[in-house]
Records
---
Amino acid sequence: MKKPSQRSLLGKLFGASAKGVAIEDSLLTGYAQAGGKDICVIGTCSGTYIGNAAALRLAAHVIDCIERHPRTPIVMLVDSAGQEPNRADEMLGLASYFGHLLSCLELARRKGHKLITIATGKAVGGAFICYGMFADRIYALDSASVGLMPIEAMSAVTKIPVPVLRKLSKTMPALEFGARPFALLGGVEDVWPTDSDLPAKLAAAIAGAAVDDNRAALGKKRGGRKLALDVRNRVLAESRR
């Protein structure tokens, strides 16, 4: 499947209102419309990495939305290969910059902004965690590559040979990259065909967004995570005693 250009994809999602979204240094910031209503847009494109400067720019736009557009839904588009592999950023406190972005998004949530993520390309590792996975509901295009750690990186950490992990990935959704395996785990609410009516799907997603974390329940229902929900419920039950 040929992946549409970023500007073309924005048009598929937001129609004519996509002109309100700027693309600069592979970062997306701006305002558009979904279902005839205004939305705030932040995100990444072209499989870029997220470093300190990028996290600050995205956080600044979230703050702008909170201050100037109260309760406007925030749509987060993810196409990133992960956190910036930059020693300088790490030494300056990359995790703190990511934490700042997450804090801004949590403030937005508490101020009544709905948070929706759409994985449009690569949604990998720290970049996905630092803003994409923080949404109320997460969606993915069928062409997206979603996952938390490439098999080669897993092998380096666990010392399990790559061929063994590749074999295991065929039957374990947690090890397989892709939108549909991640949906089996409950990490993605729904997978959208790129050629479908994306504006209608986005409008429905925003209208139906809720702040409850339903990912463990979805994972159990779909068979990708069979124990997570029960373990969570047991822990919560014990904590109330």
Note: The chain has a mean pLDDT of 91.
---
Amino acid sequence: MNPQLRKVSAIELQAFIAKAFIAIGISASDAANIAELMTRADVVGADGHGVFRLPQYVRRIKGGAVNIKPDIRIERAAPGMALIDGDNGMGHLVMRIAAEHAIAKARTSGVAWVGVKHSNHAGPASLYASMPVEHDMIGLYLAVGNANHLAAWGGLDMLLSTNPIAVGVPAGKEPPIVLDMATTVAAYGKVKTAAQRGETMPEGWMIDRMGKALTDPRRANEGLLLPIGGYKGYGLALVFGLLAGTLNGAAMGRDVVDFNNDDTTPTNTGHVIVAINVAMFRDLQEFKASVDELIRDIRNSKRLPGVDAIRLPGEQSHAKRAERLQSGIPLPAPLLKSLDALAAELKISPL
């Protein structure tokens, strides 16, 4: 194993995260809830959205930017929708409640759209798109990112964020399809993890303000993220932000707070979770069999020379989950150093 990496079990990591949140005043039940979702992010390989974020979350809570005792409530509701006010609580808590409401409503309405305002960063989009899948539903998740690193196509003013989308589709014997992607070529979390690890970025992730490739992640504040597909990615970022932010009365555009550099201002983060009850559209088992058949057709289709395998969205995360639950979650030395410093600050046992 790489000597710069140390593997810890999911149980050990989850317990550490929970202890950290309890140490700053979050209730034991809420801390366990957040820790479980953060650890789930690391287990599936979303390394920029799991324990990596813990020191930042703690800073913002200590800075007064996050409400540790939120009154998460439904502000508006109808048979197929709801609007949830997160009362500036931790995003993981708010979004789990939102997903539960969407799933419950979709059981009778067929489709349920739940918007969220006054929330915070909630980890990887796949966490929430996958929740309806566990109930044989299709899940769709949108969010406004927690910092603007994207300009309008051809512009320089950073008025848009990575604004991700995730879609989860249940299958039968095959793993579910889980698409999780930012509207930028790389999510900003990948830029931050590259900087922490002392790595360089590939060309195509960012450009500087002269339009030249930027490959040093330590200089990220000097440049812009690039959208997927050029102007098409810019259009997606704009529309997703309108749906997850503007529609809900959450921050969008110039109102987005850069939570990487601001530990005191509430972000009013907006999210959307949609649950689609497959059984309302067709026989569930027939649907799952059709998804399995399509997965196998794609996986077994002819490959270009030099391509070892054709993969489906979520397949590598599924494999990482199995591997990391078995052998542990790899944590690089710089991350361990920051977590050890956090443990000393909070007076809890280190990993």
Note: The chain has two domains: 1-62+323-351, 71-184+227-280.
---
Amino acid sequence: MPILEAAKRVIRIEREALHEMENRIGANFENAIQLILKSKGRVIVTGMGKSGAIAKKIVSTFASTGTTSYFLHPAEGLHGDLGMVHKNDVVIAISKSGETEELLHILPALKHLNVPIIAMTGKKKSTLARIARVNLDISVKEEACPHDLAPTASTTVTLVMGDALAVALLEARGFSADDFALLHPGGSLGKKLLMRVTDIMEKGDKLPFCFLDAQMRTAVLEMAHKRGICPVVNQEMDLKGVLTTGDLNRLIEANDQFMTIPVERVMNKSPKVIKADTLAVIAYKEMEMHRIIAMPVVDSKNKLIGIVHLHDLMQEGISS
């Protein structure tokens, strides 16, 4: 089979498996969510082999979206690690067959603790499915492996089921972007979620501006010394307009004797502005959308308090 045809076959089989799972998801899924929401403990996810690898990813997704979660290796559970499971926890046990030996061996101990078990199995009549409080169907018609042996479509379906649980729990708990940011403070992701315009804007002595009754000479000097933008304000610092190098270029082309022209005749009287508490990534998107390199920062009364520059946002790793 040609390489591209084989690749497309895998994608088609896995896409169809996901479509089938979407069509059959129902009350059992809702019951699983309610079990977790009502629990006062953590979510313990367990599985062997490929199921164990998917279980670890589900644990990671849970943890980053506000659901405290840990991975339990079934074989290690037989040798002491079951001590990590508390009576208030919920266990998600993953097994395509529902008959994974190591998993079945730890079920009696879990039942003794009276811990609710949510099964993810491909066999509704399996031992695991029967013992579990709730069974989530992760069955597939065929694996993408041409010999129908290597877990492929089944692991994809299981992974997506875990994502569905995580996101449903996130929404049910009202888990916000700010909550997410607190769990991801490092790197570019943390910056996107935590950094606000006030953290990066220029202010104080670095803030360029001129007054409404100034001449273009004053504005040109401000733009030359302070990065090519000059907000125009009244005596109370209310923002009235903005002058940019683009405005200056157009003015020079039209009139080379421009230095004594009042800035009020040249300025843009409806500039794009942003508030100091806005996320920096939103400022980046606004500037990218409107193709501008800087924006005045104003307070709730439209008073000029800062300037945020596209270049500074890019240097901080902020982008859309």
Note: The domain at 197-315 is CATH 3.10.580.10 (CBS-domain).
---
Amino acid sequence: MGVQTTVVFTDLHGSTAVFEALGNARAAETVTQITTWIAFQCERFGGQVVKTLGDGVLAMFNDKHSAVGAVVSLQRGHSKWVARAEVDLRMPMRIGIASGEVEMVAGDCYGDPVNVASRLCDLCEPNQIWANAAALENETESNGVTFRLLGPISIRGRAEPCNVYQIEWREEVASDFLTMQGELDPGAVATAGDALGREVELSWLGQTKRFRAFDLPINIGRVQDNQFVVDDRRVSRTHARLEWRNGSVIFVDVSSFGSWIRFNGNVGSDVLLRREECVLHGKGELALGASFADASVPTVSFSVH
């Protein structure tokens, strides 16, 4: 019989480069020290460590609240270690978390949440935590912890897309903007570098514009002052804003009647935003001022490169 649980996957990003730079002995010692600390922290929050996976850890928690507390504590503690560590030893952490039913076989766990947590860990950026909606059900934001909707994301091995959130964990600053004091987090540096090659393309009625990461923020709306104009009565004067945060393109709805987002391949899983925000990824469409059910709704195509 299955067991309801919350699964946590952690991964040290860049460990391969550390082994190449420092050799097996020293790199293995450092990775082992970090994974041992991760395991200890998971157990401190009431979790059960199922196994270590080279530079990662798989753990299970009986309750979601403890799992969320554990992953936030892990990122906060590890980020401080990264800031102090030698450059060649720096390995920022990625974390995936998912709730659901698993089967236990010979001390190991199997099932959909294991697959989802593993894939979310693979898909997220260094210093990020991605969680499925079930892991945050009935959880509340507090103590500098906020949940940002990323929308439906296709997970290999699943027929249906998974609704995903990013858990913002940084204590010192609001999640709307990130500044770092003193020595820079290498993950943040990598993100800034990646920004040079990232861009988002918007198209509507023959109008196509590309905006690079460092062009953002830009506004979308009905009046000519906006960087991307959608001249339709259902669209607010300034309807939405595109921002660049922590390596992601964020769609922020500021309209009167809301926005709907549909990611390619996810028909029927539209994301409704009313004064809310969502990460744009891949390709899709934005319905401004009315849902996709209205055939005449102004629909903007987007593509994040």
Note: The first helix runs from residue 15 to 22.
